[in-house]
Each structure stands twice: as structure tokens, then as C-alpha cells.
Design a protein that fits this description.
0% of the residues lie in helices and 46% in strands. A hairpin with a 4-residue loop joins strand 7 and strand 8. It contains no helices and 11 strands.
């Protein structure tokens, strides 16, 4: 039932910033856990950030803490990922994901815990 569409990716110089958006179709329960993951060619899909509800707890990969901010606007069914000081090694396809309801803390960083996925948006960070 849930469809997720990411946007905002593109080419950016190292040290630059991007804001990714994920628009969900239809009505999304405000309690859905929303997350961002990324995957580079030949690499494992890795957790970036997650948020439980608007203004609620947020979670970040250690590698992005202090540089990334996840937020959501439930009235618009949209979740955002603001990324600053981007590094070339962060070049990847970035995916938006949603879980029906809250995730256990032990699962929130695992892609297997999420029920719905977007198609991904390419982020390329040049040197």
C-alpha cells in the first residue's frame, strides 16, 4: 500500500550539502518509523539515519553524526535527510524506508526491519 519516492540526489563537491526528500503516497501512520539507508556498488547496504515520529527520537550512523539531520513532516507525508560536509566515500544510492509502527532499538539500524522501500536516489560526491 505504501509507495515511497526519493528525490534530491545529484552531484555535489566534497564538503558540500544536499537535502534528500522521501514522499510517501496516501496516508501514513504518524507512528511509522522512517529510515534512510545507502548502498555503494559492491558494498553492503548500510544504515544512515532513522526517526520514530515527527519531533521524536532520531538515530544516526556513527559515520554521519554531527553532519546529517533526519526530519519528517507527517502532514506532507515526507521525510528529509539533510547532509552536510559530504565526503567522496559517501557516494551511493540512498534509499528511503518505512516500517509499520515502531522498531525495537536493536532493529532500527537493520534494513530487514523495514517494510517498504523507495527506488533510491543517486548521490555522487566528487573530489
Amino acid at each position: 500500500q505504501v509507495q515511497l519516492v526519493e528525490s534530491g540526489g545529484g552531484l555535489v563537491q566534497a564538503g558540500g550539502s544536499l537535502r534528500l526528500s522521501c514522499a510517501a503516497s496516501g496516508r501514513i501512520f504518524s507512528g511509522y518509523t522512517m529510515g534512510w539507508f545507502r548502498q555503494a556498488p559492491g558494498k553492503e547496504r548500510e544504515f544512515v539515519a532513522a526517526i520514530s515520529w515527527s519531533g521524536g527520537p532520531t538515530y544516526y550512523a556513527d559515520s554521519v553524526k554531527g553532519r546529517c539531520t533526519i526530519s519528517r513532516d507527517d502532514a506532507k507525508n515526507t521525510v528529509y535527510l539533510q547532509m552536510n560536509s559530504l565526503k567522496p566515500e559517501e557516494t551511493a544510492v540512498y534509499y528511503c524506508a518505512a516500517r509499520e509502527g515502531l522498531a525495537y532499538y536493536r532493529d532500527i539500524r537493520r534494513w530487514e526491519a523495514y517494510d517498504y522501500w523507495g527506488q533510491g536516489t543517486q548521490v555522487t560526491v566528487s573530489s
